[in-house]
């Protein structure tokens, strides 16, 4: 059997954390590779619907830090199908984070069976001036900003990791080698986050490639607010991305695209 569990909100995964953290994640290691735990857990995450603090979190960083668990965060319908089928085929437990604001998104999805390898990032937009690594729906935030910046002649490369554990470090580092600048967009809280982790990896393995300090665009370190205006301020936006790129490049004219 390859069971698929559905947990409506990732906010409530604490109710079964022992089974995930101390059982599913450990068995293959505890039994010398003889045990398999091919379980896929689908769960919703993300803010944007004014669902307040207990229904809007993005907790994927918590599980990325646990050895033995694979973590997937798709951003498009095509990726969602291919990654989900790959997760089901995998012999390790996989937590499949689905941003609730993307459920109505339309896109081309082949009818035939296909998989996308876990641990393989996708370059959603090629560019030569700045690398942006974005998680989940923030890929679309990055793409919207990149489209505007292109009008000023600045080309942004947008990378979607797709899976956070395993993480495709090679694609990220190769992009930074080309652009010499890195911004990471993650709507989760900043402390001990995916944004912090990716920034640390590049600082450690690609410091000499950088022409400017790495920038992170995240939510503040507070719970998600219920108020729609406050929630809008809480999340990354294309405007925040453009402002960050302008600061990094040292070109204030980019603010007027």
From TrEMBL:
Keywords, sorted A to Z: Oxidoreductase
Origin superkingdom: Bacteria
Enzyme Commission number: 1.1.1.-
Xref: Gene3D superfamilies: 3.40.50.920, 3.40.50.970
Annotated InterPro entries: THDP-binding, Transketo_C/PFOR_II, Transketolase-like_Pyr-bd, Transketolase_C
Enzyme class: oxidoreductase
Domain Transketolase-like pyrimidine-binding as annotated: residue spans: 1-105
Organism the protein comes from: Bacillus wiedmannii
Gene Ontology molecular-function annotations: oxidoreductase activity
Pfam families: Transket_pyr (PF02779), Transketolase_C (PF02780)
Protein name per the record: Acetoin:2,6-dichlorophenolindophenol oxidoreductase subunit beta
Gene: acoB
């Amino acid at each position: 059997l390859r069971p698929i569990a559905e947990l409506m909100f990732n906010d409530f995964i604490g109710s079964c954390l022992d089974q995930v953290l101390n059982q599913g994640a450990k068995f293959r290691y505890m039994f010398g590779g003889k045990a398999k735990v091919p379980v896929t857990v689908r769960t919703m995450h993300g803010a944007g619907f004014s669902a307040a603090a207990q229904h809007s979190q993005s907790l994927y960083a918590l599980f990325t830090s646990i050895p033995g668990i694979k973590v997937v965060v798709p951003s498009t319908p095509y990726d969602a199908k291919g990654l989900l089928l790959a997760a089901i085929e995998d012999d390790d437990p996989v937590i499949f984070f689905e941003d609730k604001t993307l459920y109505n998104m339309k896109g081309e999805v082949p009818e035939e069976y296909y998989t996308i390898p876990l641990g393989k990032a996708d370059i959603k937009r090629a560019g030569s001036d700045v690398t942006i690594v974005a998680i989940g729906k923030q890929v679309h935030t990055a793409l919207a900003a990149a489209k505007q910046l292109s009008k000023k002649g600045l080309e942004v490369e947008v990378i979607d990791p797709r899976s956070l554990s395993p993480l495709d470090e090679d694609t990220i580092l190769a992009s930074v080698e080309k652009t010499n600048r890195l911004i990471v967009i993650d709507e989760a809280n900043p402390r001990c986050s995916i944004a912090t982790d990716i920034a640390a990896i590049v600082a450690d393995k690609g410091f000499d490639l950088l022409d400017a300090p790495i920038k992170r665009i995240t939510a503040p370190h507070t719970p998600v607010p219920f108020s729609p205006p406050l929630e809008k301020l809480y999340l990354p936006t294309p405007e925040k991305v453009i402002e960050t790129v302008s600061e990094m490049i040292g070109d204030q004219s980019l603010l007027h695209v």
